[in-house]
Structure prediction request, 214 residues.
Amino acid sequence: MTERTSPTFDPVRATARQAGSIVELLDATWERDRNDAPPPYISVSQLRVMYIVDRENGIRMRALPRLLGAAPPSVCRLVDRLHALGFVERRPCPDSRREVTLCVTRAGRKHLAQRRERRDQLLIDALDSMPSHQRTALTEGLAGLQQALVDQPMLRLVPEDAPPAPTLRDSDRFTQHWGPPIAADVSARDCKKNGSSKIFVADDRFNLPVVSAG
Prediction:
């Protein structure tokens, strides 16, 4: 009697074991690629930090230890290394002076793009040898697995750790309160030269002149 026809066969467990075996193969393949990649060398732990920060732009630093399952001092050292490489940037948290948020820099995004391109090429070489119907089934299955993993509590940000909402710039606050800037109808009747190239146009909303380039 084969495993599939056994009364104790668990299809979910079998799928999990198959997925785990593939993860092990991919880990070995990508570790070799990391060793062969041009400098700087990024460890697996540092890459995990970059992946999370890239996915959750502006994430609070305090959220990383929980998502990584690591001690805060260890996470701080990982971030310090990435910051020294210019791949991650610390920014003040807009709603808490005691916290910092993290963003991937332009150099960091470029580095991730290069690594993902090499990773994709490794997978393309393998996928190209598969029949098309298997690739289609795999695409659908992986999309479902990705969504199921993202929905796991351990991989989700809790509300208090979510990135702070973006703050309005001064110009945005002006537009939100007063509306867009008015178009100045400049003519000889409503402007005057003041010994310079600037033209002063009255703005009735403030009872003040608006300066535009002349």
